[in-house]
Amino acid sequence: MKKTWTNCWLEYPLIQDQPDVTITVASEWDGVIINRAYHELKRGLESLYHCQVTQAVVTTADIRFLKDPGLSAEGYTINAKKDSCTISAGDEKGILYGSFALLRQLQIAQCPLHELTWQETKVPSNPLRLMIHWDNLPGDIERGYAGDSLFFKNNHILVNERSIDYARLAASAGFNGLVINNSNVAGAAIELISDRFYAPLSRLQEIFHQYGLKLFIAVDFTMPMLMGDLETADPTDPDVQSWWQRKAKEVWENLPGLGGFMVKADSEGRPGPYAYGKNHADGANMLADAVAPYGGLILWRCFVYDCQQDWRDTVTDRAKAGYDHYMPLDGCFRDNVVLEIKNGPMDFQVREPVSPLIGGLAKTQMLLEVQITQEYTGQQRHVCYLLPWFRQILDQDMCCWEGPSKVSDLIQGKRCGKPLGGISAIANTGNDPNWTGHDLAAANFYGIGRLAFDISLSPETIAREWIRLTYGDQPKVEEVLFDILMNSWPVYEKYNAPLGIGWMCNPGFHYGPNPNGYEYSRWGTYHRADHQALGIDRTTAGTGYTAQYAPNLQKLYEDVETCPEEMILFFHRLPYSYMLKTGKNILQHIYDTHFEGAEQAAQFLSRIEGLAGLLPDDVYARMHERFTLQKENAEEWRDVVNTFFYRMTGIPDEHGRTIYP
Amino acid sequence: MKKTWTNCWLEYPLIQDQPDVTITVASEWDGVIINRAYHELKRGLESLYHCQVTQAVVTTADIRFLKDPGLSAEGYTINAKKDSCTISAGDEKGILYGSFALLRQLQIAQCPLHELTWQETKVPSNPLRLMIHWDNLPGDIERGYAGDSLFFKNNHILVNERSIDYARLAASAGFNGLVINNSNVAGAAIELISDRFYAPLSRLQEIFHQYGLKLFIAVDFTMPMLMGDLETADPTDPDVQSWWQRKAKEVWENLPGLGGFMVKADSEGRPGPYAYGKNHADGANMLADAVAPYGGLILWRCFVYDCQQDWRDTVTDRAKAGYDHYMPLDGCFRDNVVLEIKNGPMDFQVREPVSPLIGGLAKTQMLLEVQITQEYTGQQRHVCYLLPWFRQILDQDMCCWEGPSKVSDLIQGKRCGKPLGGISAIANTGNDPNWTGHDLAAANFYGIGRLAFDISLSPETIAREWIRLTYGDQPKVEEVLFDILMNSWPVYEKYNAPLGIGWMCNPGFHYGPNPNGYEYSRWGTYHRADHQALGIDRTTAGTGYTAQYAPNLQKLYEDVETCPEEMILFFHRLPYSYMLKTGKNILQHIYDTHFEGAEQAAQFLSRIEGLAGLLPDDVYARMHERFTLQKENAEEWRDVVNTFFYRMTGIPDEHGRTIYP
After folding, report:
1. Residue B429 falls within a domain, yes or no?
2. In terms of domains, do B196 and B284 share one?
3. Is the residue at A544 inside a domain?
4. Per-residue pLDDT tens digits for A424-435
5. B375 flagged as catalytic
6. Is A617 an annotated catalytic residue?
7. Is residue A380 domain-shared with residue A411, that is, in the same domain?
8. CATH of the domain at B591
9. Which residue, A94, A220, B195, B222, is the most exposed by fewest CB within 10 angstroms?
10. Structure ipTM
């Protein structure tokens, strides 16, 4: 079969032609993951140098895999001293990560192996580093913008060359697990935990295992009913409990080493414990008890809110829902339950404050949920490198206790003192030849994996790494792509909804401008723009949302003078005439940012056109098509949003630029 | 099989118990349609009187079918003189229509047959009286709100008891033909004109034929390509022409008596002659020549416009498209081509002016296309009796020549002097037990058939007939339902988009309020409401649409003083402060009508509740559910539309009623 897809950042472009060199690799100990590490090194080095890579005995090898029981799980130490290089680890996964790290460093340094002098010790910042797939068994992907599922087709499981390459990409970025199916409609995937799928799923699991990836399955809370056995899913019902115990036993017998289950309950129409007057700790703990004997985890999604809201109701505030639902349960969850919490209180808008639940929970381990599939951020037709945004989220100090209380600290369990926690990303991959639709969207796949592994990394470092690994040592390519990546999120934000207000998109598919798109809907997502003012008062004088934050943060957001202006309309209702610190009023800010955003999107296209001939033809053609579309769409956003506010206010642009009447 | 569906207006509720009476029926001549007429009389009379109905010889019969060659096609004369009743006709269909007319009259008079003294001669006003089904082969119905298709299921044709009952309903209302499949996606139905479907289609056709219904099939203009034979569909290509000639021969050999083909070409993404630089006369005539040897017709839909419009373009006006496309071709069509023209220039909004094309075409026969499936008028969840609207349309004088120039005259061919023309209705039927979802929506099915047959009928007459036939002689039921039916269209209009502006609905599914729903879209459907004004200037100073009307009408619409106010925002852009003849300005008119509309919708519910016990339980339950929903939805419309304009203007209701901020 001809390979038609790209290797992304595992392309390994030639550094130096060394056909006469033979590099030997040896390992102190053995195992399937170590075996993969060797093959990854062989593949990478042979591509980077056109050299030979063979196995040797430990004492004579150029690269030696050493066992170091002192290193924490998944950690590694690399010691490269020109003529010798060792990768030490406490477990096999450490060797694999070390091998990928060595290959990465060689490309950064752009030197032969025997010229590298480098020492690095890394232990992953987060024990859980997950890709969350919203793949459906028929093969489509909810909010997928890069083709159909890599894992499912026509209600069958795919096990093929791409399964392996997916695992290579995920592991090399630093991921250590994945949820394979769509938790939003997990009830449609009952067969995943049935005899029909155990065999192919086990084959897929074996591939993942070789790359250190734990498989998780999203299940529906009502599986005991859906699978035809029981009339209830009440978590306190002994029949339900024993159903899950039997099912867990069966699942782990067939899929030993399975990571656990993900559950979305009582959310957006999915059933859950509330149907039985029980709370989410009852529900999660019941499942946790069932999977505990096998080392299984329960990843419990906290995306619970009233999705039948009435826009005329100005008291209910969807932003408050997560905190309201889960704070009363803090400390009530089993040790093998992890609460999965979206970064913001709404739903992956281009800008939101950090969910107050993250600062609220003191005794509960958390998995941060971010979204790299670009549902609200351009659907992989627009470039939107999200790592600067994720960096801001992780650096947000929640000011919630005397200890370290940045989001990055809290998800690592520094407050609750529990060992699990981490980062999960709603995946942006599919069977498109380049994996992610937009070639530059692969930087988000790579980037969030890297950040989850090493939470200290900057978005700049990650961007440069990714460009170098993907397109080789080409200064002009690096300069242009780095600039575009680093500016892409701010530019996208400029031509979207202003100042943290969100939701000015088409309902349902979430693409394209529609200023009133969610205004009269049932989703609790309103800006309430009228001819004088816009925004939601979420202070204690308004919906009271700010009170969900610790005092310092509450104070910051509560006061319109100190509230970060990029989110000011999320927290405050303000007149168009309100003067921002830039010296512009809100209306002019809207006009200016929309003109600027569209202008900058046009510049992206020009800059990409400057890379013609420097990028592979297919990559250039795809990028050119998408940047052209982005330019046109940005103009559409600019004009629709500007016209919306112009029609509302009758106030023209101060600089006389065209706003359509 | 237990019958679970209703008979609608063929229920024949008891008039008088006459178990000892035997009514005899005899016919001077024979045929399958006459045989049906006898069985319909037998079924109806036995139900109305619990009497016996048998066949007799002509001289002794109570009811005699006589042949009268002097009567025009499909016409009948009934002469009921207590002891004898004759139904005379020039053809079999006349006998069938006369039989249904007799049964109808007996129910209106509420007397035994032998007490009826009545004389009536009727010849159908329109030669074409068609139900247009947008049924898809998988079984769904585009814009269907009454269940799945009666004709298709899982890509098979259904021939069953409901096929017969559909034919009975359609014939008794006065229809004489139907298009069975969805012309909007006719390319998906290529199998209808292939060996796979001829046999079952022929069985269905036979049922229709017995009730005087001609079967029409919607075809795609590119069938020669879709069916795999040719690389072009160019109507001037000899291969294309002979393909269609061969196909027509094959079709009529298998389906003799077929009415013809319907075509939607160059419309909403469907391909057509324009792709080959040819015009629509080229396209229609080529097909017309192919089907002419078999007496086939081509029904050519005129719904052609640019559906990739840019909202920023204020010059292009979708309303002008039909006239612009077809006027240059007036007189160029074959005699067996009929142009099918929507009543308005846009698309079945709750209020539109009559399409200027209808007044424009002088030499071309036309089929008026109206929509009884309630796409934009409440989707059979709201009651909306459309006959008052259709009456207005038919009565509109187009002032386009010295002869009779009402729409009803023009579609009858009084101007072009050609024999074909008539009325077609996009059907509102489906496999719901009551056929039309909302029980009261059956009045539209019945009503448009009756109106097409007898174009002089008033909506009031039709409503009373339908109520009486459906629910029997119950004065209270008649009073309430008549009032609701007659007020339903005005009420629906009140809480919808104001003053002819249209399109304030959710895109795609066209249900529910969304004032900006189509505002920035590609569909050419804008109101351009801002903080001061709204509406489109379609005068000669604006888009020039008014110039498509004859001088008198143009003058009427052009002048804001004479323009009918219910359509004033369709023709003029006006400030909210513009004073209507009611003494209200436009903004207050919007507020008032929306408050009134919701209030009246609530009254509908109360009035229906007064019929508890008088309607069959299932009918009452269905109605109650729908009127409850209508009440709630009308409040939603009221609040969303009022809030939209309040936010835009900041001007409160003069009467201080609640408008949500």
Report:
1. yes
2. yes
3. no
4. 999 999 999 999
5. yes
6. no
7. yes
8. 3.90.1330.10
9. B195
10. 0.89
